[in-house]
Each structure stands twice: as structure tokens, then as C-alpha cells.
Write a structure and sequence with these properties.
Number of domains of chain A: 3
Strand order of the largest sheet of chain A: 3-2-1-5-6
Distance between the termini of chain B: 42 Å
Oligomer: heterodimer
Strand content of chain B: 15-25%
Helix content of chain A: 25-40%
Number of strands of chain A: 22
Strand order of the largest sheet of chain B: 3-2-4
Structural class of chain A: alpha+beta
Radius of gyration of chain A: 31 Å
Strand content of chain A: 15-25%
Number of helices of chain A: 17
Largest sheet of chain B: 3 strands, parallel
Shape of chain B: extended
Amino acid sequence: MTTPPPDGLIVVAKADCPTCRLIEPLLTELADAGPLQVFVQDDSDYASTLPGTHYDDTLEHSWRLDTEFVPTLIRMEQGREVSRTYGWDKAEWRTISGLSGLGEALPVMRPGCGSKTLEPGIAERLELAFGDVRLSAREIDVSAEDDAIEACYARGWSDGLPVVPPTPVRVLRMLKGTSRDPQEVIGLMPPDLVSCTVEKVAINAVMAGCKPEYMPVLLAALEATLEDDFGLHGLICTTMFGSPMIMVNGPIAKAIGMNSGNNALGQGNRANATIGRALQLIIRNVGGGRPGEIDRATLGNPGKYSFCFAEAEDSEWLPLAQERGIAAGRSAVTVFPGEGVQGIIDQKSRDPDSLARSIAESLRAVDNVKLAMAGDAVLVVSPEHARIFIEAGWSKQQLRETLEQLLMAPGEKLIAGAGGMAEGIPEKFKGKQIPKFRPGGLLIVRAGGTAGLFSAIIAGWAASGPVGSSPVTREIT
Amino acid sequence: MNEHILLDPTAENAPAQRARLPRPDSLDNKVVGLLDISKPRGNVFLDRIEEQLTALGLTVKRYSKPTFTRPAPTELKQQMAAEVDVLVEGLAD
């Protein structure tokens, strides 16, 4: 590699830039006046008669000189840059070169072009080749295989859908989405209890199809699932249905284009789909939680591909994250051990009492109508249902308290054997009023399209609280 | 974009290159498949293998590809995978 001169001038140019061509004749004059090095980004023929011209085919010089535009003129003194200009600016070039008559025949000013170092895909490649960033994940050479996506399948890295091949360039680009060090350990990933670094998160985020700007949400969601209260290890291993579901609150949801409206719990939105999927791929690939192995789910649920949505926040109802202690205006994730979605259709209730009753009756189905305080649940209230409560002045908290009251049931109807069903709660609850959910076990969010008198239940893992999993909320930083 | 080098998304507990399945310690109670790729006289070789394996008391199943010029049809691969424990493929003439 040619070392730039400790004293003298440097010009970085591109042959296909008209301004660089415009100033090409001046380079001879500059070379006659003192030491000059010219780095040409795209063509060995530019200024080729000058001894100080180098074809910067790897772009290393251009990258090290932090070139954003061509032409760029730099004055070096004692190994340090003392002045710089870009494009053609007659006055600047004359000042920096010290040649008062330079370019007399040229116009006063001509803008330059973008440096080749900043073209899409090239910047990351140069940073990988010459920069300080060091990726430490093992490199897997799949050149013997004709399709990188198939190679990922063959290695067991996929959830069953195609993954984006995690090339170093893509991973570096993903890491731009966070200021955290790639080698920072987020935590021990169950079930194998392996250190999970930011870099591993980024690799799996690439595979899931995330954009870099989703990284803060994904990292917060992962950290939330790794909190002891969430009990991820058991959730991965259980024979039951649940798996981490992510609910997002705050300004970041809009900023990254998450869906909280029509089809909020369904497909079609990149952020919703890929953030949830990335978390599942981390569980699979870093943690080793694969179905049929440590993941012993009897049936599983479709949310184990991906389950992530944003709350459709309404000024009249406190958003979930704020109910759980996050300051207004801040973004947060709440993770919940969700099963699938059970719809509640009520197209006839027009007052809050009637609607609360029909929602409460529907919530009895969580786990089994004969079970109580087993699983938590998330109630997703659509805007049309929410409006009925809001217009009657009911807060979320009032709805929750009403539902809790309505869901109290006499123990004798729930005990094992009652109603001709062997399933049920222990005999000792006979004669007592039994709540359906443990305290704090019913979460309420508002989401969905503006048409449709429907709500939805997302049941949790039937091992809730300290014996299993509690929802965890974490601020996105 | 060069997709030849991928970064490992896993805990890196498994070898970078996929290992072949281990060879069985013995053929006792195994069903052995013999796949004829349909090149001339492959059957001569495989007939002799079948004689010897049968003499050892093993169960042998015979298969053949429609043509040696193409990979085995998916149905054939699935059938063999379902029916045998070990497969011997007779290559070349």
C-alpha cells in the first residue's frame, strides 16, 4: 500500500465524475508545485502520466481518507491533514494549493460526485476489510453448495421458512442498528445456556429479514425474555402451547412501521413479522430450543414462527407499558408466553355491562372452563369494542376490575369431577369464590382495524407466575 | 453480493462442516438396500453383494434409478429412506 505523503497534496478522484475530468488538466500544475498523490477510484487511465497517481482499486486509500465526495483536495503537513475541500471551488483550491492562478479558465464552482466508497454495499465491505469492527462468529464456507438458502436449511438454521443468508456484509449492516458492542453478551440463552452476543442477535435478525432499525426492539425483547420472571427455559421446554409473544408500545412502533391496526395479529407487516421471527430463531439457533428435541410442545402454535404486534394506543386508555411502569412517551416491549388467538364475537352489545359480561364468559375458556389461576391471558380489545367502554367512561383498569368480578366462580362448579368432568381444581376450593386469573394475570391491550365488533383472547402458559412465567416489560433504549 | 461465506448463527457447538452419519457397528437386524444406478453391469456387482448379505441372514431390498444421468427421483429417495437402514449404491461400470 502506498503511504500518503507527510507533506503535500492529495487528490481523490473518479474518472466518470465530470468535475474530476474538469480539474484533471490542473493536476500537472499541482504536481510541478510540490508533492502530489492522486488516488483514482475507478479507472487507471485518469491522470496516468503523473508519477504520483495510484489506481485505488481496493478503495482502501479513499476509505482511510474518509472521502465523501470527488474530487477531494487535501493538504498534509507533518503527517497531519490541515485543510480539505471537495468539488471544484476555485478560491478554496487556490488557497489550499497556494497557486494563486490555478484554474483561471475554469468556472468559479462545480459540485463533485459522491465517492465510490459510499455506494450501497461498498461501504460495509470496506469497513469489514479495513475497519476496526471485528466479527467473531465462525465463518461457514458454503461455496460448494449451489444455493445459500438451501445451505441454511441443510444446517438446520431455519424455522421451516426460507432465511436470508447471513453474510458478513448483511450482519455488519444489521449491527448499524444498535450502538452496542457486537461482542456484548446479552445473557445466557436457554435451553443450552449459551452466551448470546449482540453479534449473534444480528446474525439471526438478518436471517429473519429484519431491518437494522428493528434491532433496539429485538434486543429489548430478548432481554425481557431472559429475565428470571419470564422463565424462558421452561417455556421453551414445555409440552404446552405457549411461546414468547412481543407487544410493543411507544413512539418506536410508528417509527419502524409496526402494525397495530387492521390484521394486527396477522401477517403482512415486515416489522411485526421479522422481530417475532428473529426472537424465535435466536431461541432455535443460539439456545438450541428446537421442536422435537428440547422443545417438547405437544401441539405448539403458529405464533412460534412469529408473534409480535404493537398496541393501537388511545389517549383515553393507558397503554400497556405505562400500566406496567414505563413513563409516558417512552417505548417498551412486553413479552408474554402466548398461545394462539381465540376470537370473541359480540356484534350486539352496545353498553359496557353487556360487553364486559360476554367478554368475561369467553375468557372462562382459557386453559379449560374448569381451571382457574393457571394461565394468564391477554385480552386484545378492538377499536369498536374499546369505543363502547371509552364512551361510557370506563378506563382499562375499570374494565379489568369488572372482568375480574364477573369471572369469580363458586369453587364447587370448578372442582375435579363437577359437571361430570374429571378435570378441575382441587376439592379444597369447594365453598369458596375462585378468581379465574391470578392477581395481575389479565392484561388488556387495544389493537386492530377500525371496523369489527370483535376482540381476542391470547391465553398464556398454564404455569403462570413464580411457578412458570410472568409477563415482563422492558424499556427500549 | 457474495453469499459463499455465511456467519454461523448458532452457539457453534456443532462442527462447521456437516459430519456424515456414523457407520453402523454391525449389520445385525439391519435392512440393507442396494441401489442400481442403471449403468451397464452394475447389476452383476449388486447381485453378488445381495448373495453374500442374504447368506449372512440379512434382509436385502433392491432399487434402481430410471437413469444414471439424473439424480434419483424424490419418490425413490423417500421410499428407500423409509424402507432400509443402510444403502449400498453401485457406481460406475
